[in-house]
Amino acid sequence: MTTQFGDLLKHWREARKLSQLDLGLSANVSARHISFLETGRARPSRAMVLNLGGVLDVPRGSRNAMLHAAGFAPSYRTRAMDEAEMGPIASALDWMLERHMPYPAMVLDRRWTIVRTNAMAAMMLGQLGLSVSANLVEALLDETGLPALIENWQEVAHHLIHRLRAEAAHLGGDAWLEEMADKLAGHVGTAVQGPAAGSEAVIPTRYRLGDMTLSFFSTMSQFSTAEDIALADWKIEHLFPADEATREIVAALAQGLD
């Protein structure tokens, strides 16, 4: 009979598509010991749980679940941004957002809720009927709202579906992300309108704001050494103009934000 910890270990090993031998080699233990841990014939130490969680790239909250299943107290927690030790983090986020002006940038949490923005992103989101605390994925499911303002909606939605499913897989399964991906797939179907796959270096998103069309591509950044549960899941999205016309329009709009 497997133990709760053994079940979790096996789940994450299989989610990462590793054999017991692969995991043992990476964690510097024998495949036999991995097998014993999964079947409950051996109990892990706290250090072993953290070692395996790190090797398997288990999200911090799920590492706490593994620790609890093995009989240990959690190691990770979520901190409020106004706590003293989070001061440098908050400053770094503000620096990245502000230095990206005049282009839009925002911070998103694990489930694509907007956490904070720079002034250009706040202005654009306001034009789209969104603000901080809004959820971008839910907004994209409202066909009369945000999708109606995205000229290449089918292209963008298909890329987002793949991205949500990839993020859910990395998290070892996330029911909400998987549900949102399925809902989006139901909305857009299977036919993709637009250029053939691979014909463009990046797929920009083309937004209609009034009589203007703004075309952006984006990059994502994350904290590579975050131990805070929430911070480890945050993404900083920086939008860049995909054409000269967008660059000029954004530069003009930014003058009104000074």
What this model shows, in words?
- With 258 residues, the chain is an alpha+beta fold.
- It has two domains: 66 residues, lambda repressor-like DNA-binding domains (434 Repressor (Amino-terminal Domain)); 172 residues, 2-Layer Sandwich (Beta-Lactamase), CATH 3.30.450.
- Helices cover 48% and strands 12% of the residues.
- The protein has a five-stranded antiparallel sheet, with helices on both faces.
- The chain starts with a helix and ends with a helix.
Task: Please give a quick description of this structure.
Helix content is 48%, strand content 12%. The chain is of the alpha+beta class and 258 residues long.
The mean pLDDT is 88
How much of the sequence lies in strands comes to: 5-15%
Level-2 CATH architecture of the largest domain: 2-Layer Sandwich
The helix-strand sequence is HHHHHHEEHHHHEEHEH
Uncertain ranges = none
Radius of gyration: 22 Å
User: Which CATH top level class of the largest domain fits?
Assistant: Alpha Beta
Helix content: 40-55%
The computed structural class is alpha+beta
General form: elongated
Largest sheet: 5 strands, antiparallel
> Distance N terminus to C terminus?
65 Å
Descriptive terms for the model:
2 domains; alpha+beta; 258 residues; Beta-Lactamase; 434 Repressor (Amino-terminal Domain); 5 strands; 5-stranded antiparallel β-sheet; 12 helices
